[in-house]
Amino acid sequence: MKKFVCLFLTVICILSCIPIFATTPQSVTLMNCDTGRFITDANGNQSFTMASESDGTTFQDDSGQYLDLRGTSASLSSSAIYYTVIEAEFGRYQIKLANGDYIYDSDDGVDNTATIANTSNGSLINTAWFITPADEQAPLRILTLGDSLTYGVNLDLTGNEPRVAYRQTLSKELIDYFGEVVFVGNVDKYTTTIADPYLYRHSGYSGYVIEDVYHVDQHPGIKPMVDEMMAKYKPDIVIMMLGTNDLGLALMVKDIIPRWESFVKQVESQLPENGLLLCSALPPISTTPKEPTFNEKIQSKIHTLANEGYKIGFVDPHTPMEPEEDIFLNSDGVHFNARGYDMIGRIFTDAITSAYTMSGEKISPNPLIPTDPYAEPVESSSQSQTNDSPASTSPIVWVLIGLGSAIVIAIVLLIFILRKKK
After folding, report:
1. CB neighbour list of residue 255: distance below 8 Å, 6 or more residues apart
2. What interhelical angle do 253-268 and 223-233 show, nearest 10?
3. β-strand partners of 85
């Protein structure tokens, strides 16, 4: 009997090693879950062959060189460098060095290459990465762009409550829909954790106007900043709510529209082929009586641009809010309260989910959404597909599957041996 027990344990050990050594290498990209920037080596490569071995996980380029993430940039080494890859929430992964530190993107630099750093604190989202098969689309990157309504000013909030505008609702809804998504931008005042379903990065600036033509110190223009932020974060979707401060400073609405159109074209020209610039009408604000005229003009302009082939869409929070606008505004009558920001988030969610499938494929070139955000969405056949997740194809998962299979095979083999002995 002892001989058979020893044989059984030996078989378990051998078979349990098979999935580790036999894991099929897979070409992947590594995108930071906080900044949306990719690990890129000195040769400009963003895809690496990921393989799990007995000593850990390695990443190699096409020439067989190993990815070295121990410095401030991704370099290549002829010697194997092993990492521990840990699966976290919402399709995110962490990459640990041999000394136990986590790899993260410090957000330094001006392009879409992650600036590598390491830390012992693995709780924050900047230590998380999306590991995506190289032949699949990486998670969508979303930039929210605008003034204080994008920043999230809300005088009803007290103390240290985060001013996060509509992003709390929008990010939670989009994570539920896509499974994986990144909010990008150069404002990261409120940092989220690796297990947080809310994303707060943005490019909303209180007091900003479209272009600095008024020469008022507290109202600079956002236009000069756009090229740099588009190059650095390369968003797939830009949500733009901008013009409130212009309406307060300009004498005539017609003076704003040419600047607004120029700005829209500047942003749209830097989007990828599957990208979308989602322009919002201005919501009802008691101190800005010119907004209905402004909204009518930009909606007409958006229809014209859409017909000309621009990747542009329109959302209208003004119409559903106007009948009871007071219940959506905070005490200053200019910015939203929590209910108002929640409604805006739902309106933007409707627009994005009508334009993209759950796997991130664009299906509507120009969504035009004057809709009730609290209505139940109608699920189309193109949106009923399952989410693509790195966990479904990751070598790490195959290791676990293989290990379980090996144990089952070993148990069946033991039963067979014991029965034959009898």
Report:
1. none
2. 20
3. 95
CB-based contact 95:69 (threshold 8 Å) = yes
Describe the crossing of helices 2-22 and 395-421 by its angle, rounded to 10 degrees: 160
pLDDT higher than threshold 90 for residue 283: no
Question: φ and ψ at 389, to 5 degrees?
Answer: -135, 140
For residue 6, count other CB atoms closer than 10 A to its CB: 10
Angle at 310 between CA 168 and CA 304, to 5 degrees: 105
pLDDT digits (tens, 9 = 90+) for 140-193: 999 999 999 999 888 788 878 888 899 999 999 999 999 999 999 999 988 889
Percentage of the chain beyond pLDDT 70 is: 80
> Tokens representing 116?
């590598």
Q: Using an 8 Å Cβ cutoff, are 361 and 274 in contact?
A: yes
Question: Which residues, in sequence order, are CB contacts of 164 under 8 Å at separation 6+?
Answer: 152, 190, 198, 200
- pLDDT category, 1, cuts 50, 70, 90? low
CB 200 within 8 A of CB 187: no
Query: Dihedral, CA atoms, 349, 354, 359, 361, nearest 10 degrees?
Result: -130
Q: What confidence tier does 354 reach under pLDDT thresholds 50, 70, 90? A: very high
Write the CB contacts of 198 (distance below 8 Å, at least 6 apart in sequence): 164, 167, 168, 171, 172, 192
What is the separation of C-alpha 271 from the centre of its chain, rounded to a whole number of angstroms?
15
Q: Which two tokens stand for residue 421?
A: 């002995």
Q: Please answer whether residues 123 and 135 qualify as being in contact, where contact means their C-beta atoms are separated by less than 8 angstroms.
A: no
Backbone region of residue 333 per phi and psi (left: phi > 0; alpha: psi in -120 to 50; beta: other values) = left
- Token pair belonging to 332: 């200053």
